[in-house]
Design brief:
Layout: E1 3-9, H1 15-24, E2 29-34, E3 54-61, H2 66-77, E4 83-89, H3 94-100, E5 105-107, E6 111-114, E7 126-129, H4 142-152, E8 160-164, H5 170-177, E9 182-186, H6 190-202, E10 209-212, H7 214-222, E11 228-234, H8 237-250, E12 251-263, H9 267-274, E13 278-286, E14 289-296
Parallel strand pairs: 6-7, 8-9, 8-11, 9-10, 11-12
Antiparallel strand pairs: 1-3, 1-4, 2-3, 5-6, 12-14, 13-14
């Protein structure tokens, strides 16, 4: 069955009211999308940011009375009625369409990330099975790709690795498959921990990955003076700056640090903040994003398990 899509170009102060009206009129889904290629990075906590130029789309079943719905919207907005148009969405096997978008991707020389429904291209490679799902991270974004390429280049055998801000667990799973002894995956989003555990299980390494909240990590890792050999944090510049002291406590002397999720214009600020605990050695960029690497300096304050 085809669907009818009713699209509006409203003002920011019209969005909430318009969304409510369309939902009450029977829309199966209402979505917002950027209508002017305007990025939104690191909004304040508790805020609900929208783009200055936002398109709102409402999906209705084919038998919906669109003329009546448009008349209802017009009666509420009068001469301020947002510009709108109607489109027909053809009937397809959308699950199949979605699955066809994802292909195995190689990172470095050894590592492939493969959807579970596709055969890995190289049976002798390190093949991670990872499906798009509950949490951010399938390797397609530059911030994740930069970290995966770095991991592929490192000797990880017998290393303890921390993936702070694990999302889907892609970096944690990659680290274990590439040889790490054990991996701690940390995230404050319960959905991320669920996704990480599912991806670890899919790759038959559940016993080697601890997926925990920051509070659990503080209690079960930092408080026990455990130290990581490698710590990756693919988050955003603001949280990275806030977490610097926590990350420093988690990494052993000379342990390797990898920071990502940082825009080029934010890199110097992040580096300057971390230099009180770490020696920064390399900055690598991809598109508008950078990866910062270094190692922990100073004195050792704990012992490794």
């Amino acid at each position: 069955m085809p669907w009818i899509i009713l699209k509006f170009d409203p003002q920011p102060d019209q969005l909430s009211r318009l969304e409510t009206l369309l939902s009450n009129a029977g829309a199966g889904a209402v979505t917002f999308e950027d209508n002017a290629d305007q990025p939104l990075f690191e909004p304040p906590l508790g805020s609900m940011p929208v783009w200055e130029n936002t398109r709102l789309s409402a999906m209705f079943e084919a038998n919906a009375d669109i003329d009546n719905i448009v008349a209802l919207i017009r009666s509420q907005f009068g001469h301020n009625m947002p510009r709108h148009r109607v489109e027909v969405l053809e009937d397809k096997d959308w699950v199949r369409e979605w699955m066809d978008e994802f292909h195995p991707i190689q990172f470095g020389t050894r590592l492939w990330v493969c959807p579970s429904w596709r055969k890995p291209p190289d049976d002798k490679a390190v093949n991670m099975l990872l499906d798009p799902g509950l949490a951010f991270g399938t390797g397609t974004h530059p911030t994740t790709a930069l970290c995966l390429k770095w991991l592929d280049s490192q000797p990880l055998t017998n290393r303890i690795v921390v993936d702070y801000g694990c999302g889907s667990g892609i970096l944690a799973v990659a680290a274990k498959l590439l040889g790490a002894r054990s991996v701690w995956a940390v995230d404050n989003d319960p959905q991320a921990l669920i996704a990480t555990k599912a991806n670890a299980e899919r790759n038959n390494i559940s016993a080697h990955i601890q997926a925990v909240s920051p509070q659990q990590f503080e209690k079960e890792f930092i408080a026990k003076a455990t130290k990581a050999d490698i710590l990756l944090a693919n988050i955003l510049a603001g949280p990275l700056i806030h977490l610097a002291a926590t990350l420093e406590k988690s990494l052993k002397l000379n342990g390797k640090l990898v920071l990502s999720g940082i825009l080029k214009e934010q890199a110097e600020n992040v580096k300057n903040h971390y230099q009180q605990w770490f020696t920064i050695d390399t900055t690598v960029s991809e598109d508008d994003w950078v990866r910062i690497t270094g190692f922990r300096t100073g004195t050792e304050t704990g012992i490794n398990d």
